[in-house]
């Protein structure tokens, strides 16, 4: 255990206080970081984890939006600036958590994009046609993967030193059923026609990262799982989803709160396991 327990006599009573590796006073509550938590499913995950008694760090690339979101969360929540495509921002967030809070137990890699901005006013059909392998812009594919795939790995690497100090660390990668190769290969799957190299394949790659992380981190007791929220009404799909954010947050939150007997290296939605 990298941190040590100290017992201090204070004003006539004895208080148990934990200190982190660097001597920072650690809070006793479990701490969760949710990326992209200023809106949508991430915000609801943050609300639900705060309601479960965790201190929640509301990750937001725009600090003001994160602060507004954190202020609306009952229980312990505070904003933290983190742009998952910006190494300096990620490093600063990790340093701030280390210095100001001293612990991290749960990481929810939620932030993601489907496009770089050109989709406004376009339909799902337009998206699917513009992102087919034969015509897709490689710059567009790189930009989306930078957030959805490399951003997840970069944030995870930066937070791992803190997570390794937790007694029961959990990592949840917010994925999507549209990234399932098994489902995309099934002619009966309703979203088969939108399977393409940009957003869907970024989630396939995220699923691969999930398995790789789970394999490496299992001996350390860190559980890593991928959750599909389901088709949820958010900014990501111009609010065309059929589920509420409360429903969408259910599976990521369940995986964030897994007990010692919970699984690692899985892919699921609120109805159960999904095929890779
Ligand atoms: N909605 C669905 O139907 C659905 C289905 C399956 C999977 N998912 C997954 O669920 C997760 C949440 O999506 P959502 O539907 O809640 O979408 P959303 O409302 O658009 O929220 C996405 C969040 O990610 C943030 N973000 C984007 N790029 C970022 C970056 N570089 N750094 C930090 N934050 C960044 C956004 O910040 P800004 O506010 O600054 O843009 C926003 O807070 C995503 O992983 C998505 O792929 C959603």
Q: How does this structure look, described?
A:
The chain has about 280 residues and is of the alpha/beta class. The protein has one domain: Rossmann fold (3-Layer(aba) Sandwich). About 40% of the residues lie in helices and about 20% in strands. The chain contains eight helices and eleven strands. Strands 6-5-4-7-8-9-10-11 form an eight-stranded mixed β-sheet, with helices on both faces. It has a three-stranded antiparallel β-sheet with strand order 1-2-3, with no helix packed on it. α3 (about 85-100) runs parallel beside α5. The chain is globular. The protein starts with a strand and ends with a strand. About 45% of the residues are buried. Residues about 1-15 have low confidence and may be disordered. It binds NADP nicotinamide-adenine-dinucleotide phosphate (NAP). One of its GO terms (molecular function) is diacetyl reductase ((S)-acetoin forming) (NAD+) activity. Keywords: NADP, Oxidoreductase. Its EC number is 1.1.1.304.
* First-residue to last-residue Cα separation: 35 Å
CATH level 1 name:
Alpha Beta
Poorly predicted regions: 1-17
CATH architecture descriptor: 3-Layer(aba) Sandwich
Fourth-tier CATH superfamily name: NAD(P)-binding Rossmann-like Domain
The biggest sheet, with number of strands, parallel, antiparallel or mixed sense and barrel status, is: 8 strands, mixed
The coarse overall form would be globular
Element-level helix/strand string: EEEEHEHEHEHHEHHEHEE
Specify Rg, calculated over alpha carbons: 19 Å
Strand fraction: 15-25%
**Widest β-sheet, arrangement of strands:** 6-5-4-7-8-9-10-11
Structural class: alpha/beta
Multimeric state:
single chain
């Amino acid at each position: 255990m990298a941190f040590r327990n100290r017992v201090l006599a204070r004003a006539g009573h004895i208080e148990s206080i934990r200190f982190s590796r660097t001597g920072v006073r650690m809070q006793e509550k479990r701490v969760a970081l949710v990326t992209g938590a200023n809106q949508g499913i991430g915000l609801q995950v943050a609300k639900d984890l705060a309601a479960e008694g965790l201190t929640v760090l509301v990750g937001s690339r725009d600090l003001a939006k994160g602060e507004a979101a954190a202020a609306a969360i009952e229980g312990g929540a505070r904003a933290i600036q983190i742009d998952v495509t910006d190494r300096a921002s990620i490093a600063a967030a990790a340093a701030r958590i280390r210095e100001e809070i001293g612990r991290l137990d749960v990481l929810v890699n939620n932030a993601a994009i489907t496009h770089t901005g050109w989709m406004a006013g376009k339909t799902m059909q337009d998206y699917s046609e513009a992102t087919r392998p034969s015509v897709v812009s490689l710059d567009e594919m790189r930009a989306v993967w930078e957030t959805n795939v490399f951003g997840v790995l970069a944030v995870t690497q930066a937070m791992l030193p803190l997570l390794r100090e937790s007694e029961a660390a959990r990592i949840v990668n917010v994925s999507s059923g549209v990234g399932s190769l098994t489902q995309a290969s099934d002619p009966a799957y309703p979203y088969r026609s939108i399977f393409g190299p940009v957003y869907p394949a970024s989630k396939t790659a995220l699923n691969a990262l999930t398995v790789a992380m789970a394999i490496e981190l299992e001996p350390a007791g860190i559980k890593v799982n991928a959750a599909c929220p389901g088709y949820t009404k958010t900014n990501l799909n111009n609010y065309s989803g059929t589920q509420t954010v409360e429903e969408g947050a259910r599976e990521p939150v369940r995986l964030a709160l897994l007990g010692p007997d919970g699984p690692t290296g899985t892919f699921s939605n609120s109805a159960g396991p999904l095929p890779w």
